[in-house]
Automatic annotation (TrEMBL):
Single GO MF descriptor: transmembrane transporter activity
Primary residence: membrane
Protein name in UniProt: Putative ABC transport system permease protein
Bilayer topology: Multi-pass membrane protein
Xref: PANTHER family: ABC TRANSPORTER PERMEASE YTRF (PTHR30572:SF4), MEMBRANE COMPONENT OF TRANSPORTER-RELATED (PTHR30572)
Domain ABC3 transporter permease C-terminal stretches: 292-414
Membrane-crossing segments per the record: 21-41, 288-313, 342-363, 383-404
Domain of life: Bacteria
GO CC aspect terms: plasma membrane
Length: 421
């Protein structure tokens, strides 16, 4: 029940020596401030790292062929082989839980020779033969026109989607791009779209725009690839992890190409899901460290409040004796001391939360004024759940800080307390 007299007494007690109260409360303020700032910094780093993935489907892996390391069925080790288009359907038929299986072929590479010509201009770009699903696995924003579709694959249309950097290199400013033609290794392709995307892994964002996507079937026909598949991008559905399915995928390939089932070097792979989980584990560890450090700093503040409350109880020994003589119960005395401790702790902690909020607001305002598309630190913040946890910590800390002083207060005998000067 609300008692104005009790609250007036609490405020009077805390303001009796305001400088001592201020210095004591600073420890709790600083502890909560450090806790919130550390958690927000960890979240900002996590947001930046996730942004660096460029929206890629993280439950994915990429796999390619390598030389075999074991002899099998009379064939020597060190044998090289190629994925085939039939492998794609075999994987889909025999491995449950996959969302996309995208065969890919590639021409060019970073630092390669010029492979694209338009009029008097030329450039070296990565050219990919792809299926339409690749835009779901490596998201990009179509800035004009459209992306590849299954009619392009079925009819083996010689069409291309180019990056903004390709456009800037091969075209004049304000020149019409859609409907024009570029020549890739001597074969004409009509441009049907342009795209922009992030680097997808912290690389050079400019290089991410220097790519050209053409239908897989057109690529195979134009560049005499036959049924060869250079590599594959495979994504699992939401109910499975690609890490748990990749062994089954490998086994399908090994059986189709007469590779020993224990030959782990015959198929190269990059498990994006596994790597992403490692990073997620790092963020979990950072949060644990943040809580640990914050609690240590907060504990020092709580100890300071407990010490001050001990002094306050000592100073009010005579007052406590009068109360006991007038009929105050030990529970009433204990409750008063605990209430003062909790109020002081909560006020200090809330001041720390407000200060941390203002600092984070300033940092986010500064980041918003900068180009954060390739930054590794984005939107440092804490959730409302963290604030609730902080408030619970403050209440518990206040109770702990006042517990020993409260117990000391009720041990004082009324007669002994009245004799003190």
């Amino acid at each position: 029940m609300f008692s104005r007299d009790k609250w007036d007494e609490i405020l009077e007690s805390l303001s009796a020596n305001w400088f001592r109260t201020l210095m004591t409360s600073f420890g709790v303020l600083w502890g909560i401030f450090i806790l919130v700032i550390l958690l927000a910094a960890g979240k900002g780093l996590e947001n930046g790292i996730k942004q660096g993935f460029g929206g890629m489907a993280t439950n994915s892996m990429f796999m390619w062929t390598q030389n075999t390391s074991k002899s099998y069925k009379g064939m020597p080790k060190g044998r090289y082989y190629n994925f085939k288009t039939g492998d794609v359907q075999a994987i889909k038929d025999n491995v449950q839980g996959l969302r996309y299986v995208s065969p890919r072929n590639q021409l060019g590479g970073f630092g390669g020779s010029n492979n694209v010509i338009r009029g008097l201009k030329s450039g070296a770009f990565n050219v990919y033969g792809d299926y339409p699903e690749i835009i779901q696995q490596q998201p990009m924003d179509i800035s004009s026109g459209r992306f590849l579709n299954y009619n392009d694959l079925k009819e083996k249309r010689k069409v291309a989607v180019i990056g903004e950097s390709v456009k800037n290199t091969m075209y004049e400013t304000n020149e019409e791009v859609l409907g024009s033609y570029i020549k890739i290794n001597g074969v004409n392709f009509q441009v049907i779209g342009t795209y922009t995307k992030k680097s997808g892994g912290g690389g050079d964002p400019e290089e991410a725009q220097k790519e050209i996507f053409v239908p897989f079937t057109s690529f195979s026909q134009a560049f005499n690839m036959g049924d060869v598949v250079g590599w594959m991008a495979i994504t699992a559905d939401n109910n499975h992890s690609i890490t748990s399915l990749k062994t089954s995928v490998f086994n399908v390939i090994k059986k189709r190409h007469d590779i020993h089932l224990e030959d782990d070097r015959a198929i190269g792979n990059f498990d994006l899901y596994q790597e992403f989980n490692k990073i997620s584990g790092l963020f979990t560890a950072l949060n644990i460290v943040a809580y640990f450090v914050g609690f240590l700093v907060l504990a020092s503040g709580v100890i300071g409040i407990s010490n001050i409350m001990l002094i306050v109880v000592k100073e009010r020994t005579n007052e406590i004796g009068v109360r006991r003589a007038l009929g105050a119960t030990p529970g009433t005395i204990r409750g008063q001391i605990l209430m003062e401790s909790v109020v002081l702790t909560i006020i200090s902690g809330m001041a720390g939360i407000i200060l941390a909020t203002l600092v984070l607001w300033g940092i986010n305002t500064l980041l918003d004024s900068m180009n954060s598309s390739e930054m590794m630190f984005v939107n440092p913040s804490v959730s409302i759940g963290v604030i609730i946890i902080a408030l619970l910590i403050l209440v518990l800390s206040g109770l702990l800080a006042g517990l020993i002083p409260a117990q000391n207060a009720i041990r004082i005998k009324p007669v002994d307390a009245l004799r003190t000067e």
